[in-house]
Specification:
about 120 residues; OB fold (Dihydrolipoamide Acetyltransferase, E2P); about 40% strand
């Protein structure tokens, strides 16, 4: 029996390296799962670029509960006010638009898209 391999169009977009710059990102999903190393909780926001030649390309942003300050910029934008660190239901952010600044970095020998900054839509 042959060994089969397949991918969806969305799977293929995930590997597309975008030009560094600012893009409109729509939050497609937010997932929390334990870190492989120590079991602490990681929160992964999946943004999908909207518009332009990179329309539909997903870019993930991972935040660890061990370094909550790194998510403060995004949380402040989503809340519309400075985030004071109180618990927020991040599932409510799905569907919201945020400007994301995407850069490229090498990971395991391959280029990947990484978000290094956020801005409000207005």
């Amino acid at each position: 029996m042959p060994s089969m391999l397949s991918a969806t169009p969305q799977d293929l977009l995930r590997s597309k390296v975008v030009e560094p710059g600012m893009y409109v990102g729509v939050i497609k999903s937010v997932v929390q799962k334990p870190a492989k190393t120590d079991g602490s909780t990681n929160t992964i926001f999946t943004f999908v670029i909207q518009g332009g030649k990179f329309d539909g390309v997903p870019v993930d942003a991972l935040f660890s509960e061990k370094a909550p300050g790194f998510v403060a910029e995004l949380m402040s934008i989503l809340l519309g006010k400075p985030w004071d660190g109180t618990a927020v239901d991040v599932d409510n952010s799905v569907g919201k638009k945020v400007k994301i600044h995407v850069v490229n970095e090498k990971y395991l020998g391959r280029m990947k898209n990484t978000i290094d900054g956020y801005a409000p839509m207005n």
